[in-house]
Design a protein that fits this description.
Number of helices: 23
Structural class: mainly alpha
Oligomer: single chain
Largest sheet: none
Distance between the termini: 48 Å
Radius of gyration: 26 Å
Length: 467
Amino acid sequence: MSADQACVRCRKQKRKCDRILPCCALCKRLNKHCVYQLPEDAPRLLAMPDWADLKLNNLGYTLELQVSAVIGDGLKLQEAAALYFRTIHTWFPIVSEKNYHARLANTRVQTNTTPPELSLLTLCMALVCKEPIAGVLPDSTWSLYVSIKGFVGLLEVMGANSLEMIQSRILLTIFEIGHAVNDAACISAAANLRAAFGLNLDSLGQKSASPEEQEEIQNVRYALLIVDSYASLESGQPPSTQRGRPSSDTKDVADVELNAFPKLARASKLLDWVLIHLYATSPQDRSSGVEGVAILKCLTSFMTTFQNVELHPHPLSDSALAISRSAMIEALELGSHMINPDNYYCVLTSVNILKSLVHEVGLGGKTPPPVETAAFPVFIAHCLFKAAMVCLCDTRVSGGIDTEPFIQPMKTLLGYLGLRWVAASRCSNDFDSVIRTYHDRKIFGEDRTSTNTISFENQKSGDPNQT
């Protein structure tokens, strides 16, 4: 491969350059660094590691230096951890604050070096706290993400698998979900489960001595289910493992514990049931409506638990509420479009409940979010976008009237979320393009007389014109 022009050294010395990449003959003979001024979009050779140096202790040292370079030492490291526990941890508590600081302190006191898995976890905690600028992640954030993915692969090949590795993988999946790296998120969610099976988390939890360690491992188990379900929801696929129908304890959800994270896991398990019903059962089974009715009963029973709290949760601060609403909308939309002469009243009931749910989502968006932008959960965007799309595209739900007053609160909430997560920003842009398309076709107002349904999956793939 050759360059289009001479290297910088040959040009300065006015010597003839053979323009060989990556190093010309003159620079190679002089043992000098060879630099070409290439166009920004020109392909460049990436630095390759010395394969003989790829050993666990070398990788651990490299990761420790990466933590120092990306985050810093001492006070900077404490500030980064404090940001994580003040924001991400409030809605996704998979890393025990007490245990994390204890492990960090113990390893540095006892061995004067940090294990590679703990350094990796520290980098992932910093990564998931990164925010977009004007709806776009900076190149430095993408570079950090790609580097961490590479480190995960290297540690995996070297046989490293620990609680910190599982936690790091899950946080990477949260980053991918939140910033619309959807294909990678689905792959990561499935790989997380395999890694957890290999580690045998159940056995690890039984061996843990302290209640804090047991709770941390239990929350990691919850998180594996949660990210797998939500990644499947975003991609329109059944869950990675198709774990089967919810067990009997899931169907009896009226007395579900009100602790936020177990409740989020319960909502995700119900979402699993919906996704399996949508994507992994035969059309004949779906058309019977028996399982669909059972799903709706469980979801309705579960969602009544949110009415028992003193203050109704805000749509931008309660992930369990958002995921259960997403599951309900998915199930109701399927039921409301089933073509069967014998299920007219079931379709009518589905439409009425769907109308009520969409109104409820929009109503909750009329109050400002109660938390700082950095603490917005990642699991909210689908519910808002899908509810707004249903209201916009289905005349049975909108009643054939101007939908702008109903969908504006949901658009506003997507705008808030877009300040934190790229996926929400893209949802907001997709939704605006759909609205423009409807205006261009003059579907609003008197011309909007037919039932129009644009699938959520088409919108997420950036094709607002498919109907």
